[in-house]
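User: Write out your own:

AI:
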Amino acid sequence: MASHPLPPYPQAAATAQRARWEELALHAAEANAFYAPDMLAAAIDHLATDSHVRLIEARDEELLIGLLPITVRSRHGRLPIGCVANWIHDHCFLGAPIIRRGHEAAAWRRFLVQLDDAPWAPGFLHLEALDAAGANAAAIEAVCVEQRRGWREIHRYDRAMLRSELTADAYWDSQVRAKKRKELRRLQKRLADLGVVESRLLSNREDLARWCSEFLALEASGWKGREGTALGCKPADAAFFRAACAAGFDAGRLHMLRLDLNGEAIAMLVNFRHGAGAFSFKIAIDEAYGRFSPGVLIEIANLRAVQDDPAIEWMDSCAAPDHPMIDSLWAERRTIVQYRIALRGRGATQFQRAAAFAIANGVESAARLLKGQG
């Protein structure tokens, strides 16, 4: 087992570690493109400015069986209680650690032992953005029951996902209302009246830098740019995006799609693959063509690209719950949960951790009672 604070992190050690991550990711029990080597390395290089970000490795002798990026927080929601949490940066939409298939429970035993023994780990472990039906959730529950360790689910919601063996046409016809399909065909025809409409999937490495620049510009031209949340608004975010896309392309994980009108992008979509799954990362549209619903039109192209690719079994929308656009197009749902897990220790550390866990649970229970949730 090992814990690596970031930064600083020597380049030679980082290179060796990323090679171990890659091998682990190839045998992951649960896919998570955001913690796969390409995206995690890009995030560490450009977004891990907080010295409290650490990488917890779980090993079975010399075999790496788990990787958990964590950070230390001074607050837990509105409570002034410190805790440790899986590292969820602004552009990370699933927090499932990479654990080796067949070693799920063993990896979580080692994660928890290491956190129990860590003098820098306050309070409890807060885990966000986990799949309720995933390998991590199952292993966490099993290990906590086995160890009689306190744990609690504190939040859950559903978000859209695409998982179907139907062809794109059959899925579209069965899941989208006839009236909506008719309206979209009308919009496609009206858009085609303006010129040549073409959807393209990035396939040439030489086009990558230009596509990234065009995506950043397209996203910044819309409401995200006006609100300051577009990737291009912060140099570190833009650098992370370019690095993640480059590493993802080289690893065969990048799935980047665009919808062009007369050779100019009016919508772009960036997805990342891991194992048999894929994750919808970012979408950008030209708001000047908003009357043609370019976001929906590129999602239609994306549906065809995903359903026509035998290597992709499912795609997580990574969208907010009750998203008005993607919820109307994709029928399947993924339940996302948060957990609070008790940490152990000795002496004053054990008392502080037990008190923090009890206080957080008590405040949450009281709040639910006040809201009439029982």
Q: What stands out?
A: The domain at 164-312 is CATH 3.40.630 (Aminopeptidase). The chain has a mean pLDDT of 93. The two ends are 41 Å apart (CA to CA).
